[in-house]
Write a sequence for this structure.
């Protein structure tokens, strides 16, 4: 669901994550492009470039029709070069056209499959460099010819290349940390922990670093467990969608039993930690969240559009958990923090899913963007406006000072404006703009709320500390 | 309808219609489909089939995603003293893999064919040809395609629902069997180690 860049994490955590990604020998396509980007401009690699890369990914998806057309032409080179870089829809589409009666040259199209499929697959395999260089060399040979490309590779060479792509199904100990990171969707987990930490920080109690660390750890473990079970359930669907086809279970790097064991090894200690070391309410919320995500949201994705609302609830619970970890009870302030996340989810997810409609439809996912496009846009707009309302309610509940609705108004108005444009136009570019806005909007909103946090103590002290915090 | 008829042709043995069009992918499909029949002969099989390595005795092999179904084929290893439980597990996994492959092949093929037909009919309605003056294919914008995506989901609703239920059932059973096999292996290792000092003394 989230494609939030880990550049959002500040400091050491972000840097170590980047190193983690860079150290993976056969990292997935996303990371490879990241590395290429970083090499280009290392001074800016933690911030703008990552967003830029995400834009690039969307731009190529936007041009999927173009690539489809290009596949009909004689030279396979441009498309196979682009396939190496992109994770877009065009690779999948190019595999299928063989059986398409509309295509003119069926024999060459069949060769399309075997010549195109390996570049598509091999980018995620360790031998991809050799295979892709081979393919581009073949393309160079094939390109000058006038006729639709003649397959130059001999049968033995092709067999050898395909054989290299077979791998033994055994667990490689050295890769296990990276596999676990992918299984647990570490970036999404980091975002969840950040929102829980924000909930903790906003609670009007003295800051206890020990409880803070324990609560964050417990939330992290619970999130890892939920994400692993989610991937365990969705193996065949993930293998058919471009965004998710490089996951460890899809690639067979670990067995399903291993994934379930990992989930149990994370989930049980995580919930136990929250229940025993923090408080039972937080532990209950953690367990509830795991249940909602794995047993409600994941199966619902294929049955009904209600999955989006359940997913928004799943995203809203971590800040509530953070607050209850601090105070020990469910207060209106906790629900307000949850409300921010809940409302934010809709413009974020609806905009993201707008441009993935084809993949969702082919994969059999029932999303609002596919089945009820009008509702999708309306809901995104409605909840963007809801963010403004919630920001105004915050000082009334005593969570923040009255400065907060004022200084958060610009960003809230901006996201509402983009949601309005998306509502009216409903095209790919407006969806993309709204999605990218939502990526920086949430951290900014939480940060502003933190700076405007209502100081504890009498109202006469309220003005001075608030000013001190903001300066 | 043409799409369902075409999809129906993709059952084992009935490849005639596609043979002349897609020889390579056909071979891939055929090899893929025949894998479960070969499963029982895996022990004696030393000759390499076109796209897969020989089954080793220690580990399974996993291959690249199939171009049609995007499911990765697995060549299962058969240990020397395979127990009944392990044999059941291996057969269930092979069968599930084939079943998954069939479903997704049908799904992907019918999706792309219906999509082509939809584009064709929409362009016809507008009075346009499939290719424009420069010979490039015309495509519809995302709003027009959304009609097709919604229709595809709605018409296949029951089929998807049945597949989901069956997939969850199979996934659970496989994992449960794997757990039983793993526990049994652990138990035999522990008892062997326990018995060995007694017999050697």
């Amino acid at each position: 669901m989230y494609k939030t860049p880990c550049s959002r994490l500040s400091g050491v955590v972000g840097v170590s994550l980047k190193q983690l990604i860079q150290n993976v020998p056969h990292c997935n396509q996303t990371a490879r492009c990241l590395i290429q980007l970083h090499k280009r401009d290392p001074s800016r690699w933690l911030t703008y470039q990552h967003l830029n890369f995400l834009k690039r990914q969307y731009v190529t998806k936007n041009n999927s029709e173009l690539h489809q057309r290009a596949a009909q032409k004689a030279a396979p080179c441009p498309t196979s070069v682009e396939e190496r870089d992109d994770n877009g829809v065009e690779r999948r589409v190019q595999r299928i056209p063989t059986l398409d009666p509309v295509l003119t040259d069926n024999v060459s199209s069949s060769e399309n499959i075997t010549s195109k499929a390996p570049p598509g697959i091999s980018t995620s395999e360790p031998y991809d460099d050799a295979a892709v260089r081979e393919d581009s060399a073949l393309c160079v040979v094939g390109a000058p010819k006038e006729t639709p490309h003649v397959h130059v590779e001999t049968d033995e060479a092709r067999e050898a290349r395909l054989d290299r792509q077979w791998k033994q199904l055994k667990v490689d100990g050295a890769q296990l940390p990276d596999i676990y990171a992918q299984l647990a969707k570490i970036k999404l987990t980091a975002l969840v922990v950040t929102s829980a930490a924000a909930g903790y920080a906003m609670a009007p109690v003295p800051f206890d670093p020990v409880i803070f660390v324990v609560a964050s750890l417990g939330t992290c473990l619970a999130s890892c467990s939920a994400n692993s079970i989610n991937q365990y359930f969705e193996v065949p669907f993930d293998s058919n969608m471009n965004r998710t086809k490089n996951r460890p279970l899809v690639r067979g790097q670990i067995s399903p039993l291993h994934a379930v064991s990992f989930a149990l090894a994370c989930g049980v200690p995580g919930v136990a930690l929250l229940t025993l070391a923090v408080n039972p309410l937080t532990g209950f919320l953690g367990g509830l969240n795991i249940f909602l995500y794995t047993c409600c949201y994941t199966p619902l994705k294929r049955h009904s559009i209600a999955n989006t609302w359940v997913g928004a609830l799943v995203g809203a619970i971590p800040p509530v958990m953070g607050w209850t970890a601090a105070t020990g009870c469910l207060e209106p302030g906790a629900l307000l923090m949850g409300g921010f996340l809940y409302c934010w989810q809709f413009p974020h997810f609806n905009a993201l899913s707008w441009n993935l409609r084809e993949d969702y439809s082919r994969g059999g996912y029932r999303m609002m963007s596919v089945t009820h496009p009008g509702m999708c846009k309306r809901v995104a707009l409605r909840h963007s406006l809801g963010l403004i309302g919630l920001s105004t309610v915050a000082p009334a509940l005593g969570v923040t000072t009255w400065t907060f609705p004022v200084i958060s108004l610009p960003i809230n108005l901006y996201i509402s404006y983009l949601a309005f444009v998306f509502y009216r136009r409903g095209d790919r570019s407006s969806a993309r703009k709204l999605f990218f806005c939502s990526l920086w909007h949430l951290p900014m909103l939480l940060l502003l709320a933190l700076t405007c946090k209502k100081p504890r103590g009498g109202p006469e002290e309220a003005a001075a500390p608030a000013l001190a915090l903001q300066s | 309808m043409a799409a369902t008829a075409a999809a129906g042709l993709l059952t084992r043995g009935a490849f005639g219609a596609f043979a002349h069009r897609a020889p390579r992918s056909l071979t891939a499909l055929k090899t893929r489909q025949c894998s479960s029949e070969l499963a029982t002969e895996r022990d004696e099989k030393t000759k390499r089939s076109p796209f897969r390595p020989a089954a080793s005795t220690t580990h399974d092999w996993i291959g690249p995603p199939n171009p049609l179904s995007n499911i990765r084929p697995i060549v299962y290893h058969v240990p020397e003293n395979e127990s009944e439980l392990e044999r059941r597990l291996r057969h269930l996994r092979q069968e599930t893999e084939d079943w998954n492959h069939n479903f997704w092949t049908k799904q992907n093929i019918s999706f792309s064919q219906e999509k082509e037909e939809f584009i064709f009919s929409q362009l016809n309605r507008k009075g346009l040809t499939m290719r424009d003056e420069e010979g490039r294919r015309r495509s519809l914008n995302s709003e027009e395609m959304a009609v097709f995506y919604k229709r595809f989901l709605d018409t296949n609703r029951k089929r998807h629902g049945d597949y989901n239920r069956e997939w969850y059932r199979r996934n659970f059973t496989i994992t449960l069997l794997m757990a039983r096999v793993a526990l049994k292996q652990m138990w035999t290792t522990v008892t062997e180690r326990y018995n060995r000092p007694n017999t050697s003394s």
In short: Chain B touches chain A through 68 residues (CB under 8 Å).
